[in-house]
Amino acid sequence: MRTEDLILVSVDDHAVEPPDLFERWVPPRWRDRAPRSVHKADGTDVWLFEGIEKPNIGLNAVVGRPAEEYGIDPSSYDEMRPGCYDIHARVRDMDANGVLGSMCFPTVPQFCGQLFAKASDKELARVLLQSYNDWHVEEWCGTYPGRFIPLSLPPIWDPALMAAEVRRMAAKDCHAVTFSENPEKLGWPSFHSEHWDPFWVACEEEGTVVCLHIGSSSTLAVPSSDGPIDVTIALSPINIVQAATDLLFSPVLRKFPGLRVALSEGGIGWIPYFLERVDYTYTHHRAWTGQDFGDRLPSEVFLERVIVCFIDDAFGLESRKHLNIDNVTWECDYPHSDCTWPRAPELLHKTMDGFSDDETAKITHTNAMKHFQYDPFAHLPPSDCTVGALRARAADVDIGEHSIGKRANKMTTTADLGALRTNV
Questions:
Q1: 0.90 exceeded by the pTM?
Q2: Domain count, the chain
Q3: Can you give the residue range of the structural domain that contains 351?
């Protein structure tokens, strides 16, 4: 298959919220207490909520800039490519990259709504979270039907409310919810507790996929306090093996057989050995640990129930015979520092050399369409959805790198990651 003929759906991108989001979407009664965007004297833009400043960390929105200008310093909207926060510019950037569909994780509320959960007034928290979800579905996704997979935030402080919000959003055709890779790190019970059962039940019944994004526990892999940031960046995808293991040996997947979970931005190259290891652990130790998968192996449960996601993972694709090809999905990660914009089709096509058309279609779009109940072809004919067709209508989009003149003046170490850690 030619690069131009690919149809690409990314199950992991990110929205940088527009500065007037809450002004427009929060009911008037609550608006004065909602987060607001503030432009500071130092030129950065921050969100202010309940007396706390929340900056936008630079790595969250560096697409289109030279790599030597990447960094974790707070940034401003003026320093971002408009596609980061403007839905019209985003779709134009998607076209220029040949990407048909996109699922966008939040930025300012954090991956599972931690910002709202910290509010002292939980009724305010609920209103803010529902306003955010409505903005995401109705405006961010709804402005261009067929171009986005809706993703909701959960009111993580109350499992009953979480279940109700899953059902409310499912009624809006949203069948994905973002949750924590390790809720215990956020101060709530772990996967091993029955605490979350109302949430799991609702997701199972509504066919809503639970997305566990790397960093959604507000913790990062920091092996040594004085190591360079390269260590943390390199370990970030592989670090999701902890969530995968914790979830697999918890009761969740066995107790709720219709539940599906996605390991967002977790990569796939580590999975073959992981599957070998969990089976070895189970068969060698279950007699005394008490684990019981019935007549199945842990690897079989994982392969059947867990959706795996990758950005650029040639080794993982080469090892696809050890995976469930029906659960492998692709990501672009726009506008984060790992994203492959604007050459995603070329990079992906290179790593899929020799794949059958059926394998290619599953990985690039049909698996995502199936798992997230997403049907772009209800809005656009398939012939208009290919890389070639999308790029043809975006030939005027500037895809060149543009410097804003900032450059890091020191090597960043993990000792400098406090701000980054509190903003994931």
A1: yes
A2: 1
A3: 3-421
